[in-house]
Amino acid sequence: MSESGVSIEVQGLRKSWGAVEVLKAVDFGIEAGGFLTLLGPSGCGKSTLLRLICGLDEVSGGQILIDGKDVTGKAAAERNLGMVFQNYALFPHMTIEENISYGLKIRKVPAAEKKKQLDRVAELMALGSLLDRRPGQLSGGQQQRVALARVLVSGRPLVLMDEPLSNLDAKLRVEIRSEIRSLNKKLGITIVYVTHDQSEALSMSDRVVLMSAGEVAQVGTPKELYEHPANTFSATFIGTPPTNILDSSEVEFPADLGVAGGHKVTDCQFGIRPENLGFPAEDHEFRVKARVQSVEYEGKVFLIHLVTAAGTTMVLSYSGASVPQEGEEITVGWGREQTHLFLKKDGNAIAIER
Ligand SMILES: Nc1ncnc2c1ncn2[C@@H]1O[C@H](COP(=O)(O)OP(=O)(O)O)[C@@H](O)[C@H]1O
Ligand SMILES: [Mg+2]
User: Fold this and answer.
1) What's the CATH class of domain 242-350?
2) Which of 98, 298, 322, 348 is least buried, going by the fewest C-beta atoms within 10 A?
3) Contacts 24+ apart (CB under 8 A), 316-325
4) Do domains 8-227 and 242-350 have the same CATH topology?
């Protein structure tokens, strides 16, 4: 089992299929042992990117560096990495033990060492009691744990995972998420993980690369993406429910509000997270009037769906005692530190100057 990962960096990576440009100069990197997630909606180019890193497809431009070495022209087998796909493939006629240790056998790892590595990963992935069974006798979640165990004992310092949990039910997903995360930290292997699920990305990653239509929309830690969305795409993709976006004409804001770069507030949209909206509005500097369309009970909070006079829909996350009722006209408020501003012309975040 690998005890240390390798760094990975992609620079100006491009991919076209015929005339269609699927990836447009993508840049990102992660240090050895890090957990990097490629996040974005279906079709944005995540799997394409992973296949280029893996060496399954040829790049149309740019470079891939693994452990500081350019591997762009190298064959998949020379890149020393492991990969787990959404549809895991175990050998049906082999036991779980044989499946997991297949790579060790191929590499002719001595028996004692093989046993040690097998025991360790079986314990980490809670597979110890299943080693004598065959894949057909395991649940989907157990099979996926075997597929993960197999790649983790493969000795590869870099492992790529393409939506490995999307076939599992919600409870298992959350369990295996934290197993993968703790294995990444315990074994020190570098992981590049693909998902379209923002909560998965936020909960597992050291760094997230948010993608939109073949381009990087934002790169940062989960906290950076949540607290400082770089654009309206990021603000509305990250967080559940997503950030409310309001036109400046709908918002009551302080007269002295100033925007960086000489822009006017009227050039901007406001972004405000549902959990940062205050109700009732008290001495809040920023306010919006809206009508309650519907009320959803979520257990911990109520999600109050609102519509402004201009027809913009927004959501208030509310945990107080006096729940507003459908049809009611209410005012919600928030403070300067919870305000995100985005330029209308390109959707990019712009700083508040005062
Ligand atoms: N072999 C291919 N030939 C042509 N187009 C492709 C091929 N593979 C992927 N694409 C296109 O590239 C885009 C990105 O696909 P993909 O990387 O699979 O997205 P994601 O994994 O983010 O859902 C899609 O529009 C898809 O149709
Ligand atoms: Mg995909």
Assistant:
1) mainly beta
2) 322
3) 316/274, 316/277, 316/279, 317/241, 317/274, 317/275, 317/277, 318/279, 320/279, 323/295, 324/279, 324/292, 324/295, 325/292, 325/295
4) no
Please give the pLDDT value at position 166: 83
Nearest residue (by CA) to ligand 1, atom 4, is 17
Nearest 10 degrees: CA dihedral of 214, 179, 275, 309?
Answer: 40
Can you give the residue ranges of every domain in the chain? 8-227, 242-350
Residue 132 structure tokens: 């004598």
What average pLDDT score do residues 168-194 get?
87
Give Rg (Cα) of the chain.
24
Beta bridge mates, 107 = none
Residue 108: C-alpha distances to residues 28, 93, 102, 104, 114 (Å): 36, 21, 10, 6, 9
Residue 213 CB–ligand 1 contact under 6 Å: no
**From ligand 1's centre to the CA of 178, what distance in Å?**
29
Report how far apart the first and last C-alpha atoms of the chain are (Å, whole number): 54
Closest atom of ligand 1 to 194 CA is: 21
Tell me which residue has its CA closest to atom 17 in ligand 1. 45
Q: Indicate whether residue 42 lines ligand 1 (CB < 6 A).
A: yes
pLDDT at site 3: 58
Helix (H) or strand (E) holding 167: none
Do 162 and 85 form a contact (C-beta atoms < 8 A)? Answer: yes
DSSP 228: S
Report helix, strand or coil for 237.
helix
Q: Is the CB of 22 under 6 A from ligand 1?
A: yes
C-alpha closest to that of 173 among 148, 154, 192? 148
Indicate if the pLDDT at residue 72 is higher than 90. yes
198-216 residue pLDDT tens:
999 999 999 999 999 999 9
The answer, yes or no, to whether residue 1 has pLDDT greater than 70, is: no
Pairing mode, if any, of strands 61-66 and 8-17? antiparallel
Q: State the distance from the centre of ligand 1 to the C-alpha of 82, rounded, in angstroms.
A: 21
Rounded distance, CA 279 to CA 212, Å?
34
